[in-house]
Amino acid sequence: MAQRAQALTPAPRRRKWEWPWWVSPAGTVTALGLFTIYSLWETLTHSSGQYHNYLSPFFSPDVRAIGIQFLPAIWVVWAPLLFRATCYYYRKAYYRSFFSDPLACARPERPGRAYTGETKLPFVLSNLHRFFFYVTVVVMAFLWYDAIRAFIFPNGFGVGVGSLLMLLNVILLSVYTFSCHAFRHLIGGGLDCFSCSRGPILRYSLWKTVSKWNQEHATWAWLSMFSVWATDLYIRLLISGVLHDVRLF
Amino acid sequence: MAEMKTLHVFRGDQSGGEEVAYEIPVEAGMVVLDAVHQIQATQAPDLAVRWNCKAARCGSCSAEVNGKPSLMCKTRVDAIEGEIHVRPMKAFPLIRDLVTDVSWNYEKAKQIEPFAPKEPAPFTMYQRDVERSQQFRKCIECFLCQDVCHVLREHSAKEQYFGPRFMIKIAELEMHPMDGADRLHFTSHQAGVGMCNITKCCQEVCPEHIHLTDDAIIPLKERVADREWDPIRALFHKTAAR
After folding, report:
1. Chain A contact present for B209, CB below 8 A
2. Looking at this predicted complex, what is its ipTM?
3. pLDDT over 70 at B241, yes or no
4. Is domain B103-239 annotated with CATH 3.90.550.10?
């Protein structure tokens, strides 16, 4: 009977075309590699990311306000950088792409390599992810302040391409940050019993919402990384005079 | 005239073996297990294959179809372009042809502390409290997740890591609102959750679409981090109601 029932089902579409297995790791290495090189160039060779009311996300909060003049970006980027480096999605991405552990599912690995997973240094430090999350939330508050300030020009409220970029960037960063697994655990995932906690309906609803966002965590990770890149590059080009900000109104 | 398809089926045992090519006529709705059965019926009566329900419920017919760990009964022949290669699961000792010895899994299952109710049944439980555990109970124990897990498959670290199937078993018990046992030290040290580097292959091959990594392994890692890496949370957990 089972066979007959299956024979009556319509033939499925041909298996959808898939990229060759090496495309994903190669793409990840290229994108993360270029972003790392760009970040090093930006943080190590510039002393400011300010262009009028726009402040690059690499330089926010502006530590020059408290007297730190030496490579101000360095004092800022370590937190989001380590937040991303210990993020569960990025861990998957770089273990696969940079360490071939594994390069792709069910692909043979180089024999004879010792494997300890996340039980030994340095990868065991990924367990500190939540602490980088806490610091990143503080950085997010500054980025929201910067995004709002980007709409306030010397002659009052206005909208420039930079304002929109900064707003889009902080929205994407917020969704990425608050869809992370550590926050999902903090908001309710660590509970065995929602009904036994204080505010059970609220905690369950929050956990469900974060869980829904969490399903697309990889998408938010990439989009927010590119938005940081684009925002910083735009402001850097404004500072260097290559571009002039376009005011929409 | 029926379309013909070539199946390369592994034949052999622990002493060695190779793929043998068989030509079979493709029928409408045919799955790889049907094709293997047809080979068994018409060309190779001694071909060893484990199967049972042929409805993706029993988890018996796990194998590797064109390199991907799959249930043979759920893999349509007409969805595969070109020739088909069928091999046994690589992570487990081969018995013969497509049959492997998966008894290691049952030995690991015995080591997990069973459900320990906080109070005698019957319990009053709300759906919101049990839905996580319900997802994990969909597992049909096909062991495809164990097969694709590179920790077991490529590094043979069966002494250090129980594998994704048992991570969801532990998560199912740990997240149960009426369970009173504490398995976190066991999860970290004996079951070896730290050996998983969350590359999500287990999640990709699960025929029941269980979110093994996102909903079980990562939450377990976070719970272990509560205990072993976060003194503030550990203190909070001791004082707050769970």
Report:
1. no
2. 0.90
3. no
4. no
